[in-house]
Amino acid sequence: MPRPKVHDDALRVRLLERAGHTLSAKGLRALSLRQLATDVGTSTTAVYSLFGGKPALLTALFDEAFHRFGTHLATVTPSDEPFEDLVQLGIAYRASALDDPHFYEVMFGTIRADITMDPGSLARAAGTFEPLLRMVRRAIDAGALRAEEPSVIAMSLWAMVHGLVSLEMRGFLPPGAPDPGQAFSKAVRANLAGWRP
Amino acid sequence: MPRPKVHDDALRVRLLERAGHTLSAKGLRALSLRQLATDVGTSTTAVYSLFGGKPALLTALFDEAFHRFGTHLATVTPSDEPFEDLVQLGIAYRASALDDPHFYEVMFGTIRADITMDPGSLARAAGTFEPLLRMVRRAIDAGALRAEEPSVIAMSLWAMVHGLVSLEMRGFLPPGAPDPGQAFSKAVRANLAGWRP
DNA sequence: AGGGTAGCGCAACGCTGTTCTAGAACCTCT
DNA sequence: AGAGGTTCTAGAACAGCGTTGCGCTACCCT
After folding, report:
1. Chain C: nucleotides under 7 Å from a protein CB?
2. Going from the N-terminus, what domains does chain A have, and what CATH number goes with each?
3. Which of A2, B5, B86, B191 stands the most exposed, by the fewest C-beta atoms within 10 Å?
């Protein structure tokens, strides 16, 4: 009875890729279903049958964003200096965020309030920071950090890095500072130093 | 030749107050010019003649938000323990943000990209953190913190606090933690400890 | 070959911010 | 006092949004 599906998984992928591209290039404001459908050569109905609506499409982009982020952070491989590894992880975090601010916005921006996040997505997002937790544990074991609850230290470092990046993207860094990157790693090091034995 | 103005400064104030109220209560998404005009008993034209459009209205709210924020932070009065004063300032920051998340969003959220910020607004916003800078200097003078560049330490503390609050509001705090407030002050203290002499 | 039906493009709905327009309300000048 | 001129404002019009419903299309099964 049916007819050959046009709204298949391949179209889903194309929509998602195109949406990600538009998001990166022009920001969330410029991402409209009508334009997206036109770009891909289909109708807005496709987004509804394949995703369920715009919030659901954004949820998919949310997943995609964390996937990319996690991949980028994974390039930081552990060395024999656990303390410095954590600093490098922070630097990679900043680089990734500044490299694609719009995707970063999808992960940590206001959108979160508009879209209904399924538990799976949230869990995967949280899982992105598993490597961080492991590195903190390694640093504790190596005696580079105090034997505090690892999740507390990890959260502290994450907040520091996220806060710095967030303020930098909003233009709230003090105008006097010449090199934001240098101030960044300095602040991260100081924060980690607060957890030294 | 003219006729008595209806779009006077009093109406401007009423619009701004009503907009602030709606923002607090229902968030930025619910703030529409049509609804706002209806609520205040005027037409959308008023917003255009008194502000210039929605972005300009948001800029006014941005100013208002930082004013409120600054007033709230000013309630933290210096004691004879400069180190602890900084912790208390952080706690006040968190309380203010969680007390009115939508206003906090206007200050540090995505909106920043949509509205054209005049230098005056940005300068006033930055000025809100003058007290923080003073407290850091006091702490350095008292020997509670290292003699680093005060703005760097202030920025580090601000980023820490902002990052924690931001992650907490987004639901990214580790589920295990029982009391976010306690974890917050602990993290702030650890961050400050990193700047100790 | 001809229903039956699932799938899909397109138009319509209600909303948004913004712009345009027509008329109302006042002051000034005759 | 009355007419004219000018400024100001409310509301309609416009373009675009996400979403929903309609109706045609194109296939599978009998």
Report:
1. 3-11, 15-20, 24-28
2. 1-52 (1.10.10), 61-193 (1.10.357.10)
3. A2
